[in-house]
Amino acid sequence: MTGIELPDSPDDLPADDRDSVDDTSHEQLQEADLLDGDAPERDPEDPLDAGWIPNERTRGVDAWGVTQREEEDGEPLDGRLRREIPEDPDDLGSDGLGDASDTDGELYDDEVGNARSGRLVLRDEGDEGYADDVGVDGAGASAEEAAMHVVGQDEG
């Protein structure tokens, strides 16, 4: 040894040699800072000494896709659908829009008209792109024509 004496604790160092930053990363967690669980019931004196107890049965070892072959082949659709759990509509925080089943849609505002338009004929008004509904053209409408709805009638 060279004769250098080391202090027993950091508190034995002179005040100017101590770390000026308060290092609390090595302090023991209090009960309120722990994850939820029953650790304080087993050892109320020291929650960190209680440890962690794993589940009785490991999870996912019998699920699809664990082996290399299953991963490469992919899971059949009927297997995925069997595992699917439908969402509870009460838990979704519904706003009332789009919640009804067996409907064509529920959104009604100024940009979606209720009445279906017939054949549209473009007006000659320069750069403006307005069209007039001239009625159904005798035959079935194409998908694009059927998607057009009347929003409102402009006066004048």
From TrEMBL:
<feature type="compositionally biased region" description="Basic and acidic residues">
    <location>
        <begin position="77"/>
        <end position="86"/>
    </location>
</feature>
<feature type="compositionally biased region" description="Acidic residues">
    <location>
        <begin position="101"/>
        <end position="112"/>
    </location>
</feature>
<protein>
    <recommendedName>
        <fullName>DUF5709 domain-containing protein</fullName>
    </recommendedName>
</protein>
<feature type="compositionally biased region" description="Acidic residues">
    <location>
        <begin position="33"/>
        <end position="48"/>
    </location>
</feature>
<feature type="domain" description="DUF5709">
    <location>
        <begin position="111"/>
        <end position="151"/>
    </location>
</feature>
<dbReference type="InterPro" id="IPR043763">
    <property type="entry name" value="DUF5709"/>
</dbReference>
<dbReference type="Pfam" id="PF18970">
    <property type="entry name" value="DUF5709"/>
</dbReference>
<feature type="compositionally biased region" description="Acidic residues">
    <location>
        <begin position="125"/>
        <end position="135"/>
    </location>
</feature>
<feature type="region of interest" description="Disordered">
    <location>
        <begin position="1"/>
        <end position="141"/>
    </location>
</feature>
<feature type="compositionally biased region" description="Basic and acidic residues">
    <location>
        <begin position="15"/>
        <end position="29"/>
    </location>
</feature>
